[in-house]
Write a structure and sequence with these properties.
10 strands; three-stranded antiparallel sheet
């Protein structure tokens, strides 16, 4: 009787250890899926400021900025109505006054908006499927995963004041933690 009870206890312990072991393992594909799910609800991006409302452009001085606004209008993100066109006194330059408004098509790119300024997404970063996920399992319930996120420029990209990113990607490290109820999740980002 003691022997069968001891054998049953050993089998129960081995079974529970094996079932725990399966829960705590994670591989490259699973880590990639966890990070991809996280990025869907918490996207990585770089933003810039966008002016709208009544804007004044000088024909020669603001030629590049006006060209960017015209491209945004052609893509249907903004609407521009010419309010006034005036020749500058004793100059070859002309001043244009436009009433600029954001269209509904721009809504997914707008982060925040005030009366005459909006914070818009200029660059979105997406998980690069071509590059592997490098992860280190620190213990049974935590891991660190480093991934490559590729840069995707939005229509508002030309409005970025300083082009501080010369690379077409960024690398980011995420901390993964095993939760009993929900499995592996991203922690602390």
């Amino acid at each position: 009787m003691k022997r069968s009870h001891l054998l049953f206890t050993c089998i129960l312990i081995l079974f529970s250890l094996n079932s725990c072991k399966d829960e705590t393992t994670i591989n490259e594909n699973e880590a990639s899926a966890v990070i991809e799910n996280y990025l869907e609800s918490n996207p990585e991006f770089k933003s810039t400021s966008f002016d709208f409302g009544e804007l004044k452009f000088r024909g020669q001085k603001d030629q590049q900025k006006l060209a960017v606004y015209k491209v945004l209008e052609n893509k249907g993100l903004i609407k521009m109505d010419l309010q006034e066109q005036k020749k500058v006194f004793l100059s070859k330059d002309t001043t244009y006054v436009y009433l600029v408004a954001l269209n509904d098509k721009a809504a997914p790119l707008v982060i925040s908006q005030r009366r005459d300024k909006a914070e818009v997404k200029a660059i979105s970063y997406l998980l690069d499927d071509a590059k592997p996920v490098n992860f280190i399992k620190t213990n049974n319930k935590t891991a660190k995963a480093t991934v490559s996120l590729k840069k995707v420029e939005t229509a508002f990209y030309p409005l970025i004041k300083s082009n501080d990113s010369n690379a077409g990607f960024i690398t980011k490290t995420y901390k993964l933690k095993l939760k009993k109820d929900s499995g592996w999740i991203i922690e602390g980002n």
